[in-house]
Amino acid sequence: MRGSNAWTILELAREGSFRLIASEDILDEIARVLAYPKLAKRHGLSVSGIAAFLEKTRAHAVIAAPSGRLDVIAADPADNRYLECVLAGNAGYIVSGYHHLLDIREYRGIRIVNAASFLELFAPR
Question: Are the CB atoms for 34 and 43 separated by under 8 Å?
Fold first, then answer.
């Protein structure tokens, strides 16, 4: 995880380069995904390490509270939580590796990009 594009984006957000917006649903999803055995083997975080990572992320994020549910992505309904979050948080981008989101490319003026593309746009040079 350290040294990855996603890690770099989180560090830039923590430094104030841009606003990181999350919701409780997204933080729950991140916790669930980080606990997958295949991913846990890659990132090497324990259960308490995942909790610490999420708390650090929460401390630097604007926590949006979506007012309703969307049903845009039928193939993976959990991905709709990301759309709900960015609408509630008035964000300009979703940064994701989920193909159901990336395939949309844009939703209501919000660009959906992968981490590498986002860094090309926003990383300090």
Answer: yes
- Which residues make beta-bridge pairs with 113? 95
**3-class SS of residue 18:** coil
- In the three-class reduction of DSSP (H, G, I as helix; E, B as strand; rest coil), residue 21 is classed as strand
Cα Rg of the chain, angstroms: 14
Alpha-carbon span 18 to 122, nearest angstrom: 9
Examine the pLDDT at 124 and tell me if it is beyond 90: no
For 82, the 3-state DSSP assignment is helix
pLDDT tens readout for residues 34-77: 999 998 898 888 999 999 999 999 999 999 999 999 999 999 99
pTM: 0.86
Look at residue 6 in the predicted model and tell me its pLDDT.
87
